Amino acid sequence: MPDRRAMLLCMDPSPSAPAGASADMLRPFSPPEQHIPRLRRALLDWFAVNQRRLPWRVNYTPYEVWVSEVMLQQTQMERGVDYFNRWMARFPDIAALAAADEEAVLRQWEGLGYYSRARHLLAAARKIVAEHGGVFPSDLEAIRALPGVGPYTAGAIASIAFGEKLPCVDANVERVIARVFDVDSPVKQDPAAGVVRRWALRLVPEGRAREHNQAMMELGALICRKKPRCEVCPLAEFCISRHLGIAEQRPVPGKRAVIKPVQAVTGVLRRAGLVFVQKRPPSGVWGNLWEFPGGRVEPGESPEAAVVREFMEETAFAVRVAETFGIIRHGYTTYRLTLHCFGLDLAAAGQTPAAQLTAATECRWVRPADLEALAMPAAHRKLADRLFAGKNQ
Ligand code: SF4
């Protein structure tokens, strides 16, 4: 195995190494290009043989690359492929997506979370139709100008769909670079974030951006995982942290997000075979999704009391608890939700009063079977399925 100095010959983030970078990052090695062509070749050769067959890797259309990148930002590959295939069956091209209504788009996205991404996809498709004649723009600036397209997604589309010499730096790539080049401070923060970005760019070979970027991501997903499989890694020869025996200490973790537990309630109010649902406001979490009303349990409050209070506050309905449907647990962003679920009746018999909505833009009494067509947050969908799925109501 080569010694550390020999390995470090390829470490040269200059000329723009940031202030505060570690001594190793800044050491002036030369010639910096010595190992890079071999590293690129080893990576591309590995990818040619080991890449997974994925539906967006058949034609590499910008639309497919875009949708797949947005979907995969928060979900596992297997699940992402299922969602992608269903999405493409429903919205096979930009024109079909642009012509869809938001309800259908949110329903298709349901379960992936981060619903603003689905709304942005729709808005961007409409912009492409309105301003680019329905043809996905190839110019980086025009790609960045699309709603919801940040630097990562723009780089992914420009490089993977159009072959632009740009890097894609997702968490997999961060991990690979942090290990190969022994980046010794948290990669989400500068100076390390800048070092990773510059290495990512520098490694992209002329004319092979598509394969190279995907190979980096694939290596991170399949080989350079949290527990690295260095023994079968095509970059083992070049990897400084492996050479130093510290691969599992890279990347250096940053501050962990604190997961906050949330106790909440929701109630299924029924009347004459119909159930009450309301539509959340467009902004904020679960914007424009349909839900059973409810909210957080206040300190010292019982879940039963909370659901009665929430209904009064959100709809002005006086309700009483008729049934207990148990608990649904669901994690989203940095929250761990414990949702207490109830079946409710109106407290007073007689004519149903009109709802006075304070936390929604719209409400409906629907047949349970009609819930299937509404986009709902995942926990509410779980409840609806638990109560009504397969019961022909
Ligand atoms: S040698 Fe190990 S640590 Fe280095 S890139 Fe490969 S899998 Fe990751």
UniProtKB/TrEMBL annotation:
Instruction: Give EC number(s), comma-separated.
Output: 3.2.2.31
Looking at the record, the residues that make up the Nudix hydrolase domain are 260-389
Question: One short Pfam family name for this protein?
Answer: EndIII_4Fe-2S
Could you list this entry's UniProt keywords, alphabetically sorted. 4Fe-4S, DNA damage, DNA repair, Glycosidase, Hydrolase, Iron, Iron-sulfur, Metal-binding
Kindly list the GO molecular function terms attached to this UniProt entry. Answer: 4 iron, 4 sulfur cluster binding; 8-oxo-7,8-dihydroguanine DNA N-glycosylase activity; adenine/guanine mispair binding; metal ion binding; oxidized purine DNA binding; purine-specific mismatch base pair DNA N-glycosylase activity
What cofactor does this chain's UniProt record say it requires? [4Fe-4S] cluster
Q: Which InterPro entries match?
A: A/G_AdeGlyc_MutY, DNA_glycosylase, Endonuclease-III-like_CS2, Endonuclease3_FeS-loop_motif, HhH-GPD_domain, HhH_base_excis_C, HhH_motif, MIG/MutY
Q: Does the keyword 4Fe-4S apply?
A: yes
Q: Which CDD domains match?
A: ENDO3c (cd00056), NUDIX_MutT_NudA_like (cd03425)
Q: What class of enzyme is it?
A: hydrolase
Q: Which domain of life is it from?
A: Bacteria
Q: PROSITE patterns in the record, alphabetically?
A: ENDONUCLEASE_III_2 (PS01155), NUDIX (PS51462)
User: Transport among the record's keywords?
Assistant: no
Q: So what does this thing catalyse?
A: Hydrolyzes free adenine bases from 7,8-dihydro-8-oxoguanine:adenine mismatched double-stranded DNA, leaving an apurinic site
Query: What GO biological process terms does the UniProt entry carry, in alphabetical order?
Result: base-excision repair; mismatch repair
Family under the similarity heading: Belongs to the Nth/MutY family.
Its job: Adenine glycosylase active on G-A mispairs. MutY also corrects error-prone DNA synthesis past GO lesions which are due to the oxidatively damaged form of guanine: 7,8-dihydro-8-oxoguanine (8-oxo-dGTP).
What is the official name of this protein in its record? Adenine DNA glycosylase
Source species, please?
A: Desulfovibrio legallii
